[in-house]
Specification:
- The chain is an alpha/beta fold.
- The chain has 2 domains: 3-175 and 357-388, 3-Layer(aba) Sandwich (Rossmann fold); 187-350, 3-Layer(aba) Sandwich (Rossmann fold).
- It has helices spanning 12-26, 50-55, 73-94, 106-117, 136-146, 155-163, 177-184, 190-197, 220-231, 250-263, 274-284, 293-297, 329-339, 342-350, 360-373, and strands spanning 3-9, 31-38, 60-64, 98-102, 122-125, 149-152, 171-173, 205-209, 238-242, 267-270, 287-290, 306-309, 322-325.
- It has a 7-stranded parallel β-sheet, sandwiched between helices. A 6-stranded parallel β-sheet has the order 10-9-8-11-12-13, sandwiched between helices.
- Strand 6 (149-152), helix 6 (155-163) and strand 7 (171-173) form a beta-alpha-beta unit.
Length: 389
């Protein structure tokens, strides 16, 4: 009898990172795969990105709506409550043999709490990482402690998961699935990218993604104003700007972006590029600007400079192609100019991406298969104490 593995995805970015794992699982005769979508995937405001999954020919087992039309801390807590109620019923019905989750979203934390109560083993990707400026840091470590198998993107992150008390024989450094997407996914030619965007691109454009820094009080409005003020100084460039996530104050950022796009002909603002279009756009871009993890994890594999703004990604391991700056217009302008310089472009082209692994998704599926099929899972975990080992 096949084992059922449930895969959770709440955002367009999560799906893009999980897709190679889903495809590898589906190739295994030992598994049935149930994809469950929630959060931003089901919101018209954020582009109804669940459609990308269906367009890829993948069947969605369940769509569970939890998102409220607000992004205050109280509404996010209420969304987490809705997730716990809804997923309790879903897991009771599905009875999966394992749950695959990725990263550090608040929706994921809520779902993992339900899975833990239902004694469903959790398999976590991208644990052990550091993002000191956002609440995701705490969420990620909470998910780690609820999870049974861990798939980290670097050896240093593997060591951090072990430091949290997880046994080394359940923690695997496999690299980042996002980098695997770059190495193996067919990307669009520039003309096809332009056609999909309905927008003609010059040789001189940048991609901009900026999210709120959730451990700062009311900084989103000030910081997005500073960023847009900086972009004003580069009227000779084009900017493809993707909207912020449904985090606290994310809608504040998106309102500014929409207004900015309406009055600047060199700007296109999109709800979501999707994985293929995003990676294709990065391939031809001069630089990537903002505070998204993609600028740290995936972009270096293209040899494209990243301008990383503020503290959202503070603490992450970074390639030499990443330049950090404060969320102040003058600092941002200075660093963008550096990123566009010939000297730094050469640095970026030669930079090594620390997140590159070898056959990442195949390794993940191999280890899941080993533990699930061979009945090696004992959810009564023992704390691995480094002082006595």
């Amino acid at each position: 009898m096949k084992k059922n593995i449930c895969v959770l995805t709440a955002t367009r970015a999560e799906y893009g990172l999980l897709k190679p794992v889903i495809e590898k699982l589906q190739q295994e005769n030992s598994f049935d795969v149930s994809i469950v979508v929630t959060g931003m995937h089901l919101s018209p405001e954020f582009g109804l990105t669940y459609k990308e999954i269906e367009e890829d020919g993948l069947k969605i087992d369940k769509k569970i709506e939890i998102l409220l039309s607000s992004d205050t801390p109280a509404s996010i807590s209420k969304s987490m409550g809705l997730a716990m109620i809804s997923f309790a019923d879903y897991f009771e019905e599905l009875q999966p043999d394992g749950l695959i989750v990725l990263g550090d979203r608040y929706e994921t934390l809520a779902v993992c709490c339900v899975a833990m109560n239902a004694r469903i083993p959790i398999f976590h990707l991208y644990g052990g990482e550091a993002t000191e400026g956002i609440i995701d840091e705490s969420i990620r470590h909470c998910i780690t402690k609820m999870s049974y198998l861990h798939f980290t993107a670097t050896e240093k992150y593997r060591e951090k998961v072990i430091q949290l008390g997880e046994s080394p024989d359940r923690v695997f450094n496999v690299g980042a699935t996002g980098v695997e997407n770059i190495l193996k996914r067919n990307l669009l030619f520039k003309k096809d990218l332009e056609r999909s965007l309905n927008y003609s691109l010059t040789e001189n454009y940048a991609i901009v993604t900026f999210h709120s820094v959730t451990l700062e009080d009311n900084s989103a409005e000030i910081q997005i104003q500073e960023l847009l003020k900086a972009l004003d100084q580069f009227s000779n460039m084009q900017f493809i700007i993707t909207k912020a996530n449904a985090d606290a104050d994310g809608r504040v950022i998106n309102e500014y972006l929409e207004q900015y796009g309406q009055v600047h002909k060199n700007v296109i603002v999109v709800d979501s590029l999707g994985t293929q279009r995003y990676l294709s756009a990065v391939k031809y871009a001069k630089t990537v600007i903002g505070n998204s993890s993609s600028g740290i994890v995936e972009v270096p594999s293209f040899g494209v400079p990243t301008v990383n703004i503020g503290d959202r990604q503070k603490g992450r391991i970074q390639a030499d192609s990443v330049i950090n700056c404060k969320p102040l217009s003058q600092d941002i302008i200075k660093v963008i100019n550096k990123a566009l310089s010939d000297d730094f472009i050469n640095v970026a082209k030669q930079a090594k991406n620390p997140y590159e692994g070898l056959n990442t998704s195949s390794q993940i599926v191999k280890h899941i298969k080993d533990f699930v099929i061979n009945d090696k899972i004992d959810i009564k975990k023992k704390f691995y104490d480094l002082r006595t080992c």
